[in-house]
């Protein structure tokens, strides 16, 4: 818990990035979770996944931008990503973070930015998922999503985090709207007043929301690598006679490739979230926070490297 909190704290402090980026070990660690710094490298990764029958969601890394120019640049890069998906015909859609599109600068300005992006996506017939960020952004993300869903329909979808206590209400509203929802546990440090803290509570909430989405939702995405939760989903789907084309499993690039393969072989849709770009630091820190073993591995390697230099 302490390690997780420390890593999540670091993820929000860009100052540490210079040290981390220059370090070959963290670069290697990042390359496990990030498909490269360029769109070309990301498309290569998507092609490799495609050969195994796995779909992708491309994520241009970046969040919490502080300048409008940065947000415009990010929007244009996402538009390039959409164009490249269309040109190459790879089986991929796109995920974006609203703070990358300027949510913290100005809500209406950000909305215009995202509308431009979605207009382009709709013309190309490519789906765009709005990722969910920390609880400072939940209300604004859901509000903007509701507006955009009214205008763009199934071109866009959103994310619900099972650790948030309010998520049962949000899921009910999203189901009533016919919105496409990705369900995940949630990756940020949130206080107990608004978020479940214990693993079993987060999982129980996941199960409850999962069952609602599978029963009444619109092509839900089950985004987890957690075996018991996936087994629960599979049992539920079997007892309800749901067909595999009514939902998909989603996992992160570089995580549980064994499980991705098994679900694919069993005939389920699997989509992998493929992050790329130069702004990989907060993303890497959140991935390390999820699994202390990753940190232990990194610490051991750093120690070995240090000993070799002695
Ligand atoms: P859990 O963390 O319990 O992991 C279960 C098992 O999976 C572990 O025992 C380990 O084997 C493996 N595993 C999980 N994470 C690993 C890691 N980093 N390295 C190595 N092994 C790992 N969050 C959010 O707040 N907003 C969002 O928009 C999204 N979007 C999103 C998309 C997709 C496709 C996925 C899969 C996840 C997200 N998340 C997210 C992240 C999510 O909230 C959560 O933090 C991670 O998925 C880890 O939780 P699990 O459900 O996998 O369980």
Average residue-wise pLDDT: 92
Widest beta sheet: strand line-up = 1-2-3-4-5-6-7-8
Distance between the termini: 33 Å
Shape: globular
List low-pLDDT spans: none
Q: What is the tally of beta strands?
A: 8
Sheet bearing the most strands, described? Answer: 8 strands, parallel, barrel
Structure class: alpha/beta
Helix content: 55-70%
- Ligands: dihydroflavine-adenine dinucleotide
Q: What does this molecule look like?
A:
This protein has an 8-stranded parallel beta barrel, surrounded by 6 helices. It is α/β, with parallel strands linked by helices and 310 residues long. It is globular. Helix 8 links the parallel strand 4 and strand 5. The mean pLDDT is 92. Helix content is 55%, strand content 13%. It has 13 helices and 8 strands.
Describe the structure using short key phrases:
single chain, alpha/beta, 8 strands, binds dihydroflavine-adenine dinucleotide
List the topology elements.
Blueprint: H1 2-11, H2 17-22, H3 24-33, H4 39-51, E1 55-60, H5 68-88, E2 92-96, H6 107-124, E3 128-130, H7 138-152, E4 156-161, H8 167-177, E5 180-184, H9 199-216, E6 221-223, H10 227-239, E7 248-252, H11 257-265, E8 270-276, H12 281-290, H13 292-309
Parallel strand pairs: 1-2, 1-8, 2-3, 3-4, 4-5, 5-6, 6-7, 7-8
The protein binds dihydroflavine-adenine dinucleotide.
The site of dihydroflavine-adenine dinucleotide (FDA) has 23 residues, from strand 4, strand 7 and helix 12.
Can you give me a brief rundown of this structure?
Helices cover 55% and strands 13% of the residues. Strands 1-2-3-4-5-6-7-8 form an eight-stranded parallel β-barrel, surrounded by six helices.
């Amino acid at each position: 818990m302490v390690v997780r909190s420390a890593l999540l704290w670091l993820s929000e402090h860009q100052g540490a990035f210079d040290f981390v980026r220059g370090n070959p070990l963290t670069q290697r660690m990042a390359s496990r979770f990030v498909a490269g710094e360029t769109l070309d490298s990301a498309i290569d990764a998507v092609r490799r996944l495609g050969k195994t029958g796995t779909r992708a969601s491309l994520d241009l890394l970046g969040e919490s931008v502080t300048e409008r120019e940065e947000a415009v640049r990010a929007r244009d890069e996402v538009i390039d990503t959409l164009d490249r998906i269309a040109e190459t015909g790879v089986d991929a859609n796109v995920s974006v973070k609203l703070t990358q599109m300027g949510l913290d600068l100005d809500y209406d300005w950000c909305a215009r930015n995202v509308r431009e992006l979605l207009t382009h996506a709709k013309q190309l017939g490519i789906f765009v998922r709005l990722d969910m960020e920390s609880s400072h952004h939940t209300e604004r993300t859901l509000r903007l999503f509701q507006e955009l869903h009214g205008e763009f329909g199934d071109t866009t979808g959103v994310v619900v985090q099972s650790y948030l206590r309010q998520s049962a209400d949000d899921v009910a509203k999203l189901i009533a709207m016919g919105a496409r929802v990705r369900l995940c546990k949630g990756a940020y440090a949130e206080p107990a007043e608004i978020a479940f803290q214990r693993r079993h509570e987060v999982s129980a909430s996941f199960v409850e929301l999962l069952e609602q989405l599978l029963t009444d939702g619109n092509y839900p995405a089950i985004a987890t690598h957690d075996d018991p939760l996936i087994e629960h989903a599979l049992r539920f789907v079997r007892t309800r006679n749901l067909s595999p084309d009514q939902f998909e499993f989603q996992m992160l690039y570089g995580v549980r490739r064994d499980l991705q393969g098994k679900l694919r072989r069993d005939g389920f849709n699997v989509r992998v979230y493929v992050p790329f770009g130069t702004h990989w630091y907060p993303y890497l820190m959140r991935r390390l926070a999820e699994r202390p073993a990753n940190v232990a591995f990194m610490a051991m390697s750093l120690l070995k490297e240090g000993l070799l230099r002695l």
